[in-house]
């Protein structure tokens, strides 16, 4: 088993999350040999297509399911929205333009109505795990141009590694340490699905992402693993 396969094999969903939402699945996609950099014609085309086809988040069952999931662990989805809900609300006025890798995954997120995040694999400390927070775990971010460390609320659903929280409130906000940068060549992408999004739809979103990553970074190699909360 190579290093990438071993890292994916070690990723896990804590039973406490399965008890909260047994219908939850995470599709993890590791991409290596990526070409980072600013947005380009390829990423711009994907974003424009996603903006043109973006659905109304108030009418989509997958968005509704994510709001229910946020409420189940005490979050207020109108204040801290699931990531795909926040993106869909921005689509009519234009999705954010960040960098080519982030723009690609944001476009896939909107087009397939699925929460989707990307993080720099080289900045992870140990395997990835989805769990409910104790409330003492460090979460690193920037505030006013300065580094700040916060803690999640007890019971909050978080992604974490051995150093701390990598994403708060399931898919709401990523930490600074593992975010994609202009130097990222190895990344892990996380696609979050609940009941209204079945496995074929989740797999289709994963294919759209891997196809776009490989097309924009010729020679890139992807590996994936599907995690199920109920297993």
UniProtKB/TrEMBL annotation:
<dbReference type="Pfam" id="PF03483">
    <property type="entry name" value="B3_4"/>
</dbReference>
<dbReference type="InterPro" id="IPR020825">
    <property type="entry name" value="Phe-tRNA_synthase-like_B3/B4"/>
</dbReference>
<feature type="domain" description="B3/B4 tRNA-binding">
    <location>
        <begin position="64"/>
        <end position="218"/>
    </location>
</feature>
<protein>
    <recommendedName>
        <fullName>B3/B4 tRNA-binding domain-containing protein</fullName>
    </recommendedName>
</protein>
<dbReference type="InterPro" id="IPR005146">
    <property type="entry name" value="B3/B4_tRNA-bd"/>
</dbReference>
